[in-house]
Amino acid sequence: MYLSAFNVFFTMAAPRGERLIITLLGRRNVGKSSLINGITGQEISIVSDTPGTTTDPVAKHYELIPVGPVTFYDTAGIDDIGELGEQRVRATRKVLWRSDIVLLVFDKPEWDEHDRSTLKELQEMEVPFLVVFNKADLYTPDTGPLTELQRLKIPYSVVTAQNSGDMLALRKQIIALVPEYFKREKPIIGDIIQSGDAVLCIVPIDLSAPKGRIILPQVQVIRDILDHNGVAITVKETEIGTVLSQLKKKPALVITDSQAVLQAAKEVPEDIPFTTFSTAFARYKADLAVLLEGLRQLDKLEDGDRVLISEACSHHVECDDIGRYKIPRWIEQYLSKKIRFDIASGHDYPDDLTPYKLIIHCGGCMITGLEFMRRLRQAQAQGVPITNYGILISKTQGLLERVIRPFGF
After folding, report:
1. Closest CA to 45 of 24, 75, 36
2. Cα–Cα distance, 144 to 109 (Å, whole number)
3. Fewer Cβ neighbours under 10 Å: the N or C end of the chain?
C-alpha cells in the first residue's frame, strides 16, 4: 500500500541537472580534445591534427576531485566554415548557455577582434571562464596578450596538454572557478523539516512515469528527505486517505505531483503543510519569488496572446502530456480565453523571447540551477514574465496560497 523510500530509491549516477558543466571553446585544431584528455588523464576525446575533427558538441563525464561529477563539452571550432560549419557553431553557442565554466582555448598567445569579441561575450554572460594557451612547447609566449588579460583580471594558463604538471596546475585553476552553487549544500525541502519528521510523497504512476522508475524530481526529494534524517513515505494518489488513517502521527509535510494536486488537497487536512514537487523545485533550481511575480501575468492574458511552454528536456510525448496538453487546457479553462501556445523543448530556448506575454517553465530537473537562473535573467532582461509549471497549475486549481505556504510565502 505504501513504501519506504528505500524501496523506490536506488543507486544511480549523479543527475544531469546536478553536474557541473565545463565547456572547451576555441578555434579548430587548438587542442581542445587533447586538453580534455590531459585534464582527465584519460583518452576520452578523439585527437587528430585534422581541423574540424570534433563536429557536434560531445559530452564527456568525469569525476573531478574534490568537485564531484562534471561534464566536459568538447565543441566544434568557433571558426568553422560553410553552411554545415555555421550549424556547428550555433550548436556550440547553445552549449555556452548551459555552461558553468568555460575554457577558452588558443594555440598561441595572440588574438584578433573576433577573439576579443568572444572574450567580451563570455564576460557579458557572467559565466566563469579561463583562457588557456595550449601547445606551449611550440612557441615562445608573447607578453602582449598576457598583459592584456592581467589588466582585465581574466585568469589564464599557458600549458602543454601532454605535460602532466601543466594539467595538474590547470585542474587546480578550474577548481578555483567552481561557482558557489556547486559548493553549498542546498536542500530541496530539508530545511523545512526536522530530523525524524515523516513526509508523505504522493507519486502518481501514469503514462508519464518511466517504466520501473519514478521521475527524477521525486527521486531527488526522497533523497533529500533521507539526507536530512526524515522518513519518506511514498504513496499513489489513490491511497492517500488510507495511509493517513494508518499513521499514528500526522506527517510534517505532504508533497504531491502537481497533476494530482487537486485530488490530494481534498484528502489532506488543511492543518497539514502541503506543497508540490514542482513548487519545491522552483525554489531549489531558480527563484520562487521571481516565478511567483511572473505568475501575476496569467490573469492579464488576452485572447490571441502567445505563451511559451519551456521544457528543459526532450522526452517522449504522451497523449495527455502535461506541458503540451494539460497546462494549455487548464489555462484556457481558467481564463475562458483562447491563447496561442508554443513549445520549446530541451535546449532550444529561444534567444528572442519578446513575442511572448508569458513563459511557463518546467521544474528544470534536467538542467543546473545556474542554467535555470540564466534563462530566468534572460526573460527578465527582455521584459517577459516567467513562471513555473507547478505554481501555475496550483493557481489554476485554486490552491496557490496553500502550496507556497510551507516555504514562507
Report:
1. 36
2. 8
3. N
What span, in angstroms and rounded, lies between the C-alpha atoms of 143 and 33? 26
How many structural domains compose the chain? Answer: 3
- Report the amino acid identity of residue 235: V
Domain membership flag for residue 173? yes
What's the length of the chain?
A: 409
Q: State whether 170 and 315 are in the same domain.
A: no
Residue 96 CB burial class (10 angstroms; 0-12, 13-18, ≥19): buried
* 72 C-beta neighbours (distance < 10 Å), count: 27
Let me know whether 82 and 205 are in one domain: no
Tell me which residue of 312, 315, 322 sits closest to 261, measured CA to CA.
Answer: 322
Taking each helix axis from N to C end, the angle separating 389-396 and 288-295, rounded to the nearest 10 degrees, works out to 40
DSSP code per residue over 325-378: IIHHHHHHHHHTS--EEEEEETT---S--TT-SEEEE---TTS-HHHHHHHHHH
CB contact at 8 A, 50 and 1:
no
pTM: 0.76
CB under 8 Å to 280, separation ≥6 — which residues? 188, 189, 217, 221, 255, 407
The reply to whether 382 and 273 lie within a common domain is no
Spell out, as residue ranges, where the chain has pLDDT lower than 70: 1-17, 44-57, 79-86, 88-89, 91, 206-213, 314-320
Whether residues 122 and 200 fall in one domain: no
Specify whether 40 is located in the same domain as 174: yes
Alpha-carbon gap, residue 206 to 33, rounded angstroms? 43
d(CA 105, CA 25): 6
Sign for the CA dihedral angle at 15, 281, 21, 27 comes to positive
- Same domain, yes or no, for 131 and 234? no
Helix (H, G, I), strand (E, B) or coil at 30: coil
Residue 333 lies in a domain: yes
User: How is 254-323 classified by DSSP, letter by letter?
Assistant: EEE-GGGHHHHHHHS-TTS-EEEHHHHHHHHHS-HHHHHHHHGGGGG--TT-EEEEEESS--PPPTT-II
Identify the domain containing residue 229 by its residue range: 3-9+188-280
CATH classification of the domain holding 329: 3.40.50.11410
Give domain status of residue 405, yes or no.
Answer: no
What's the CATH code of the domain at 233? 3.40.50.11420
Asked, for residue 49, whether it belongs to a domain, the answer is yes
Can you tell me whether residue 151 is helix, strand or coil?
helix
Q: What is the pLDDT of residue 330?
A: 94
